[in-house]
Design a protein that fits this description.
The protein is mainly α and 147 residues long. It contains seven helices and no strands.
């Protein structure tokens, strides 16, 4: 039993869902599951990666990597705002969550706050069609249109 177990019980921490069930493919869900894992699984070393392991099998590896990167980016921002000296020691970010988890006494609030701040959509790999300009082809001088 770790020193934080009493604090978890006094704060009434209850996981949002069982930590071994499948997680939805959103940054918010991965961050929430990571908070659940780090708060309830004493031998966890990298809760964000462990939460990503609970993604459905049909999620491509590149998408899973993007989801983890988004969660780690947000968690890094929050952790640096709360622990600036530790952030300087870890170096320029974003730093993988495993580094923060290893150094923090109570890491789950950072992941819970990251889950609150993150949206529910998948990361965008390409710009939406609306943002792309369509340029009409104009005939060049001397071009008769026949080739």
């Amino acid at each position: 039993m770790s020193s934080g177990d009493g604090l978890l019980k006094s704060m009434g921490y209850r996981p949002a869902s069982p930590v071994d069930s499948m997680v939805a493919a959103t940054p918010r869900e991965i961050a929430q599951r990571a908070a659940d894992i780090v708060a309830t699984v004493p031998d966890s070393r990298d809760a964000v990666s462990e939460a990503a392991d609970c993604l459905p099998g049909y999620i491509e590896a590149g998408i899973a990597w993007d989801l983890v990167a988004v969660v780690e980016w947000m968690a890094d921002r929050i952790a640096r705002s709360r622990h600036p000296a530790l952030g300087e020691m870890l170096g320029v970010g974003p730093v993988p969550w495993e580094c923060w988890q290893r150094e923090l006494i109570e890491p789950w609030p950072i992941l819970a706050d990251a889950a609150t701040k993150l949206g529910k959509s998948l990361p965008v790999r390409r710009p939406p069609a609306q943002s792309m300009a369509v340029v009409p082809v104009r005939p060049q001088p001397g071009d008769s249109g026949q080739r």
